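Propose amino acids for all 241 sites.
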């Protein structure tokens, strides 16, 4: 079997740019792993690969790889603006319902927020040891690789998409428009915001498909400024006959 090796240099998480770059690498491998483990595509269509000396899977289909690459690049662009609190891979039922069945959520709300002029400015204090992030990466991918046994099976012909959620900040605006790769998510997957009249206070309403009916924790990753929580939510569509 052919084997592909990702760039396996251990990142030095000493700047915000390095933290975001490490997250992009992690997100890329995690998406490929989830698509493989949840049988979104035939498992025979994936290559054996390695990242940080960890066995992982990568789709062989050029269009799938390009979609993931473009989607992660779009997430990275917003992360560098410090506008996102989370990113989620949502698996949808086949038509006609297309209901969200699973939501793999990567919460990065604990990432620092830095001015654009300081993306490459080193953090104060010493960065975490170079081996720290790869060790946590391996543990998280290992957890993803065994998670299917804890989740209800998915139907055939499911689809997937990548969704981002903005930080709760009055200065953050959705990156929507004709020149962006983003579109508004369906209402059930949005945390809706309302501005109260006369002041800047905001009220938040939970979309009906957020939270799911069962949540399974995956792992927390903490390595210097890289602080991420990860879990998966199973939607009610999986349990409806």
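Proposal:
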């Amino acid at each position: 079997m052919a084997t592909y090796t990702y760039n396996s240099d251990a990142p030095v998480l000493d700047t915000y740019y390095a933290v975001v770059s490490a997250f992009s690498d992690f997100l890329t491998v995690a998406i490929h792993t989830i698509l493989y483990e949840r049988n979104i595509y035939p498992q025979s269509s994936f290559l054996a690969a390695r990242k940080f000396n960890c066995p992982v899977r990568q789709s062989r289909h050029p269009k799938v790889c390009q979609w993931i690459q473009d989607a992660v690049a779009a997430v990275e662009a917003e992360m560098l603006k410090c506008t996102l609190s989370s990113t989620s891979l949502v698996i949808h039922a086949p038509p006609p319902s297309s209901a969200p069945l699973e939501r793999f959520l990567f919460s990065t709300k604990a990432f620092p927020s830095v001015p654009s002029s300081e993306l490459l400015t080193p953090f104060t204090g010493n960065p975490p040891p170079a081996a720290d992030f790869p060790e946590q990466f391996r543990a998280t991918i290992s957890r993803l690789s065994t998670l299917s046994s804890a989740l209800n099976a998915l139907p055939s012909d499911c689809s997937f998409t990548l969704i981002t959620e903005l930080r709760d900040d009055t200065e953050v605006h959705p990156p929507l428009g004709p020149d962006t790769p983003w579109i508004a998510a369906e209402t059930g997957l949005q945390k809706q915001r309302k501005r109260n009249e006369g002041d800047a206070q905001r009220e938040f309403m939970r979309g009906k498909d957020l939270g799911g009916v069962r949540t399974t924790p995956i792992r927390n990753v903490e390595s210097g400024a890289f602080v991420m929580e990860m879990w998966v939510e199973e939607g009610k569509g999986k349990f409806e006959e």
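The chain has three helices and ten strands. Confidence is low (pLDDT under 50) at residues 1-5.
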